Amino acid sequence: MRPGKPMQNGLAESFNSSLRDERLNETLFSSLSEAQITAWKDDYNRNKPYSSLGNLTPYEFALKMISQTQTA
After folding, report:
1. Gap between the Cα atoms of 33 and 54, Å rounded
2. Among 56, 61, 62, 67, which is most exposed with the fewest C-beta within 10 angstroms?
3. What was the pLDDT predicted at 7?
4. Which of 67, 49, 69 is nearest to 59 (CA)?
5. Contact (CB, 8 A) for 21 and 13
6. Which residues contact 60 (CB under 8 A, 6 or more apart)?
7. Residues 31-67 as b or e (16 or more Cβ within 10 Å = b)
8. What does the alpha-carbon distance between residue 29 and residue 60 come to, in Å, rounded to a whole number?
9. In angstroms, rounded to a whole number, what is the distance separating the alpha carbons of residues 19 and 13?
């Protein structure tokens, strides 16, 4: 790959395409700040329940573990 020619790297192009398809294109954003991955990740980790965590969000699960540790 020549310097300054990222389109010659098929792996990077494939990753970028998948990221757009799986993360950015599936969500409608009203502003650029909403589209930031950090904000999306924070929302995903706080609001999406997981069956492996007893149908709790990771945030709720962490709070539960902290409270159980403190009472023990």
Report:
1. 32
2. 67
3. 63
4. 49
5. no
6. 49, 53
7. eeeeeeeeeeeeeeeeeeeeeeeeeebeeebeeeeee
8. 26
9. 10
CA 12, CA 61: separation in Å to the nearest integer? 35
- pLDDT by residue (tens digit) across 42-62? 777 778 888 888 999 888 898
pLDDT recorded at residue 72: 64
Measured CA distances, 58 to 6, 29, 30, 32, 47 (Å): 36, 24, 26, 26, 8
- Confidence tier at 2 by pLDDT (50, 70, 90): low
Q: H or E stretch including 13? A: helix 10-19
